[in-house]
Amino acid sequence: MSEEEKTRAGRRRGIAGITISVAAGLALVACSSGGNSPSSSTSSTSARARTAACPTGTTTASSGAPSAVPSSNAGGLPVAKTIKKSDTSTSIVINPKGAQIQCATSGVTTTHDVTYSSPTTNGKKSDLKLDIQVPTSTSGKKPLVIYLTGGGFVMADRTANLSQRTYVADQGYVVASLQYRTTKDGATYKDAVADVKSAIRYLRANADKYDIDTDHVAVWGQSAGGYLAAMTGATNGEKSFDVGDNLDQSSEVQGVVDEFGPADLSKLAADYDTAAQKSNYAAGNSAAQWVYGPGTKKSVADRTSEVAAADPATHISSKTAPFVLFHGSADNLVSPSETLDLQTALRAKGIESTRYVLTGAGHGDLSFTGDTSAALPWSTQETMGHIVDFLGQHLK
Questions:
Q1: Angle, alpha carbons 102-108-114 (nearest 5°)
Q2: Rounded CA separation 375/362 (Å)
Q3: Residue 1 near residue 93, CB atoms below 8 Å
Q4: What ranges does the record give for the region Disordered, renumbered to this chain (predicted)?
């Protein structure tokens, strides 16, 4: 770690002297008071003490967002028993066992259930929703951060990770958490990327309503959401993903935060034992449907032209946004080498990329399994501080 990184890390460790045990923010509702989400397009305002714990709540089903499904086996996803040690020579290794984040003194106004797009998938129309948090401590336009939850390509609960989203909003960012189409809707990655870009265009078109600085937008995702964040930033300028409304608005972003997201699906289980590889590459599973569509009998084990096209690395161009990537060294759902290979591809094309490896951390977005401890390494002041530093560098 460089002297600059050591200085930043020390500064973040000194931000708050109180260590709070936070219930990970992974099975939470998007309600800043910590209760259930209100109905369509309602707002609530919260003001927190300087050292208050970030808001938490109980996951509830809402517009296209399924309830958490407790499981000892990551919701039925293939879990690796062994993980090959990843190369960290081009990454920054951090210890994720420090103090948890605290929400600051600012107020945040939250608007729930905003319909940003109504696409049709296989003949069925869906009203896609977002929840948006706007900090009220300062006036004027604020940079926008689009948050994308995980869910194994089969679900997208926009109410997840409330504590982390609120922390970022407290730093002076408008934060919008999206519902996007998944394989459960009969969608592929192309549809989901189009959804993210639709949301960006919608929010730029409605910038005055939400105090958004349209020149400074970032995407931040975890797991499957990290994949979508990577695809969104890598495809800056690719018009094929811009479909739907507000096409007079740009969908380009100025930064990408990718936390433990997959990239090349043919290497999704590259670091794992044979049994985990067999499960991850099973014909017709969720990863295969994500690429090939519903009812497929194909596998992502082979890097076909379709699998290659679904890899953000194949879309990198001079317009691709700067990246910051994060992965746990003990992630048993997405091979740590996935973000390493993506960083290598980004740097080879001259795109700024920094990768952090959290020693001993596992997969951090397990809201759909009811796991409330997996996210703790991902909600420390150290980890979240690196995210905020990146956003500050590229959006402010």
A1: 125
A2: 8
A3: yes
A4: 33-77
pLDDT tens, 202-241?
Answer: 999 999 999 999 999 999 999 999 999 999 999 999 999 9
Angle at 150 between CA 200 and CA 268, to 5 degrees: 110
Return the CA Rg of the chain: 19
Would you call 39 exposed, middle or buried from its count of C-beta atoms within 10 A (0-12, 13-18, 19+)?
exposed
Cα–Cα distance, 322 to 329 (Å, whole number)? 23
- Which amino acid, 27? A
**Domains by residue range for the chain, with CATH:** 3-395 (3.40.50.1820)
Q: Measured between alpha carbons, how far is 195 from 101 in angstroms, rounded to an integer?
A: 30
Q: What is the DSSP secondary structure assignment for residue 28, as one 8-state letter?
A: -
Give the largest CA-CA distance in the chain.
Answer: 56
Torsion over CA: 116, 121, 123, 124 (sign): negative
- Measured over the CA atoms of residue 364, residue 367, residue 368 and residue 370, the dihedral's sign is positive
**Strand runs (DSSP E) across 296-393, as ranges?**
323-328, 353-358
Condensed to tens digits (0 to 9), the pLDDT of residues 156-195 reads 999 999 999 999 999 999 999 999 999 999 999 999 999 9
pLDDT tops 50 at residue 38? no
Measured CA to CA, the distance from residue 39 to residue 3 in angstroms comes to 49
What pairing do the DSSP bridges indicate for beta strands 174-178 and 107-117? Answer: unpaired
Residue 87 is inside which H or E element, if any?
Answer: none
* Cα separation, 13 vs 99, whole angstroms: 7
In angstroms, the CA 367 to CA 141 distance is: 32
* 231 vs 51, higher pLDDT: 231
Comparison of pLDDT for 61 and 165, the residue scoring more: 165
Q: How many CB atoms lie within 10 A of CB 342?
A: 27
The token pair at 113 is 């259930």
Q: pLDDT at position 53, please? A: 78
pTM for this one?
0.85
| Nearest one of 388, 387, 374 to 24, comparing CA atoms | 374
